[in-house]
């Protein structure tokens, strides 16, 4: 559990450091001057690049995770993610290198996506395949806690720097410091993960039969229905999360006029409620089951979408904080049970590949273009369509979960 939590926290720190910097700094730093809105859209587009890379990483690392083992694959994914993040700190800006700066930023963002694509599935399996009977939900939610821990570390770092450094220094060089810090965190994550042994489920699967030659082919041939169900089942959590974080931060501090440090602070506070939601969802998953818990989270997310415009767009920092709190608690219930639900859809021989592909393709559908769509809708039509978009994504996941069934035979 500790290894799964530390690893996901480090990797999500890397991921969210980028999302925060993209919302606040990367537009004018890495893209041609036109208008601030266009630069912000281009910056959000680089966020989407990682979502394109994540299924590629899921297939690549899933192949080796199902054939070689969970441990070595998780170490490799952490190294790729951490190396890509650290190198961003050394990039030249558009003013210094022109389009080369933009290209290098996109390449390193793609590297982040590859690393995270292989991270989540392995961390979830590390937890649930070591869980004692009756504890899969609680063990499965532990790597999910890496997301709020990573977010708190990333945004907290930016908030602290913003309080210490003037705006000019933050724009010129201060934004690089959180990326440099990733190297230290990756070293800690590696120290923990190198002490791991293989999970009992993977060892038992190898004892029964040799590993699949091409796990992704077996997954597509024999478990396509489970893969589609898993993919659509995660759409809600990605859409809600990126609307509540990347979009809300960028739009809130520009069009709505919220102070940057104030908004970072309320996001930081709301993320603690997301962590609480994840923990409660893990408990509920063991008491009921992960699918029913996810159904409740998606139903609540539909309601949260209707609250976005009146609360976030009110101009009141308190109401904005209340909306973020409600949304991120719902996010906890849409996200926390996934660590137990998605692996349960697949047998051990293709579990790393299947869970990773479903999670990361769902990330493309729910998260890759969401900040761009939300920004465009908000500029032309206001915040109400953004809330309806969020509710619509939750409805897709809700319908999927209502007709989906976990494979009880694979719960080992």
Topology summary:
Blueprint: H1 2-24, H2 26-30, H3 36-67, H4 70-88, H5 94-97, H6 99-128, H7 136-144, H8 146-164, H9 167-174, H10 176-193, H11 200-208, H12 215-222, H13 224-233, H14 235-253, H15 260-287, H16 290-312, H17 317-335, H18 338-341, H19 351-368, H20 370-381, H21 384-403
Helix pairs in contact: 1-3, 1-4, 1-6, 1-8, 1-10, 1-14, 3-4, 3-6, 3-19, 4-6, 4-10, 6-7, 6-19, 7-15, 8-15, 13-19, 13-21, 14-15, 14-16, 14-17, 14-19, 14-20, 14-21, 15-16, 15-17, 16-17, 16-21, 20-21
Structure characterization notes:
InterPro entries: MFS_dom, MFS_sugar_transport-like. The chain has one domain (2-209, 221-405): Growth Hormone, Chain: A (Up-down Bundle), CATH 1.20.1250.20. With 412 residues, it is mainly α. Helix 4 packs antiparallel against helix 10 (176-193) and helix 16 (290-312) runs antiparallel to helix 21 (384-403). Residues 406-412 have low confidence and may be disordered. It has helices spanning 2-24, 26-30, 36-67, 70-88, 94-97, 99-128, 136-144, 146-164, 167-174, 176-193, 200-208, 215-222, 224-233, 235-253, 260-287, 290-312, 317-335, 338-341, 351-368, 370-381, 384-403. The chain is built from 21 helices and no strands. It is globular and about 60 Å long.
Radius of gyration: 20 Å
Q: Tell me what the CATH architecture is.
A: Up-down Bundle
Overall tally of domains: 1
Overall outline: globular
| Category from helices, strands and their pairing | mainly alpha
The number of helices is 21
Residue share in β-strands: under 5%
User: How much helix, percentage-wise, in residues?
Assistant: over 70%
């Amino acid at each position: 559990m500790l290894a799964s939590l530390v690893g996901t926290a480090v990797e999500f720190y890397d991921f969210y450091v980028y999302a925060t910097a993209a919302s606040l700094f990367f537009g004018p730093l890495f893209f041609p001057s036109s208008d601030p809105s266009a630069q912000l859209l281009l910056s959000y587009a680089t966020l989407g690049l990682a979502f394109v890379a994540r299924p590629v990483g899921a297939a690549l690392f899933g192949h080796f995770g199902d054939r070689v083992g969970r441990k070595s694959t998780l170490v490799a994914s952490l190294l790729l993610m951490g190396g890509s993040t650290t190198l961003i700190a050394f990039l030249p800006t558009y003013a210094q290198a022109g389009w080369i700066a933009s290209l290098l930023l996109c390449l390193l963002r793609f590297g982040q996506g590859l690393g995270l694509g292989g991270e989540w599935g392995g961390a979830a399996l590390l937890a649930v395949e070591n869980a004692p009977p009756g504890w899969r939900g609680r063990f499965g939610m532990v790597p999910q806690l890496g997301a709020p821990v990573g977010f708190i570390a990333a945004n907290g770092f930016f908030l602290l720097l913003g309080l210490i450094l003037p705006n000019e220094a933050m724009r010129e060089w201060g934004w690089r410091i959180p990326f440099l810090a990733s190297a230290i965190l990756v070293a800690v994550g590696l120290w923990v993960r190198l002490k791991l042994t293989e999970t009992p489920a993977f060892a038992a699967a190898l004892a029964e039969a040799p590993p699949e030659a091409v796990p992704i082919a077996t997954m597509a041939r024999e478990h396509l229905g489970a893969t589609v169900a898993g993919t659509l089942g995660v759409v809600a959590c990605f859409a809600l999360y990126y609307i509540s974080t990347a979009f809300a931060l960028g739009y809130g501090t520009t069009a709505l006029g919220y102070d940057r440090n104030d908004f970072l602070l309320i996001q930081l506070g709301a993320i603690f409620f997301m962590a609480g939601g994840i923990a409660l969802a893990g408990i509920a998953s063991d008491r009921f089951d992960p699918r029913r818990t996810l159904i409740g989270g998606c139903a609540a997310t539909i309601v949260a979408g209707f609250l976005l415009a009146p609360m976030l767009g009110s101009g009141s920092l308190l109401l904005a904080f209340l909306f973020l709190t409600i949304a991120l608690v719902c996010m906890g219930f849409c996200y926390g049970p996934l660590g137990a639900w998605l692996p349960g859809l697949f047998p051990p021989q293709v579990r790393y590949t299947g869970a990773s592909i479903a999670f990361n393709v769902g990330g493309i559908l729910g998260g890759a273009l969401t900040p761009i769509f939300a920004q465009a809708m908000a500029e032309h039509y206001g915040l109400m369509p953004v809330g309806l978009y969020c509710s619509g994504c939750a409805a897709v996941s809700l319908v999927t979960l209502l007709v989906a069934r976990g494979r009880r035979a694979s719960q080992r």
